[in-house]
Amino acid sequence: MHVLALDIGEKRCGIAVSDSSGKIAIPISTLDTQHVLGGHPDFKRILSDHEPELLLCGLPVSLDGAEHTQAIRIRQQAELISQQTGLPLAFVDERLSSSEARRLLRESGHTERSMRGKVDMVAASLILATWLEAQRTIL
């Protein structure tokens, strides 16, 4: 089953997809969040190319597990995307995913400038990898 993961930010949205076996999270792209919300042709092309069966969105809960303003906004945006695409929706805790993405990119030799645009899609792949691992544990 292909899963499409989104790391929805205020300006950019990182996108990752799983392989058909559901074992590997692959970073795909970073698009303007408004393009994703508006069904831009670039987002539609990603949907067409990967034919996901589930939409997975990272939800930024606080360290104590509470959902605040940002989580509420993302939940609403994810529900809109789910309705527009007809994909079932799931959420996963994305705490610290962007920080981890930055760390991984720095370790692989990227500068702050070269990381621009990559952090979001790497964060989406980390969110997806976390969810895929949890699914394997459940099964």
What does this structure look like?
There is one protein chain. This protein starts with a strand and ends with a helix. It is 48% helix and 23% strand. The mean pLDDT is 87. The protein has a five-stranded mixed sheet, sandwiched between helices. The chain is of the alpha/beta class.
Q: Rounded to an integer, what's the Rg over CA atoms? A: 14 Å
Largest sheet: 5 strands, mixed
Q: Helix coverage percent of residues?
A: 40-55%
How many separate helices? Answer: 6
Could you say which structural class the secondary elements and strand pairing correspond to?
A: alpha/beta
Shape: globular
Taking strands numbered 1, 2, ... along the chain, how are they ordered across the largest sheet? 3-2-1-4-5
Low-confidence parts, pLDDT < 50 over ≥5 residues?
A: none
Please trace the helix and strand order, writing H or E for each element. EEEHHEHEHHH
- Rounded mean pLDDT is 87
Question: What distance lies between the first and last C-alpha atoms, to the nearest angstrom?
Answer: 14 Å
> What's the total count of β strands?
5
Q: Report strand %.
A: 15-25%
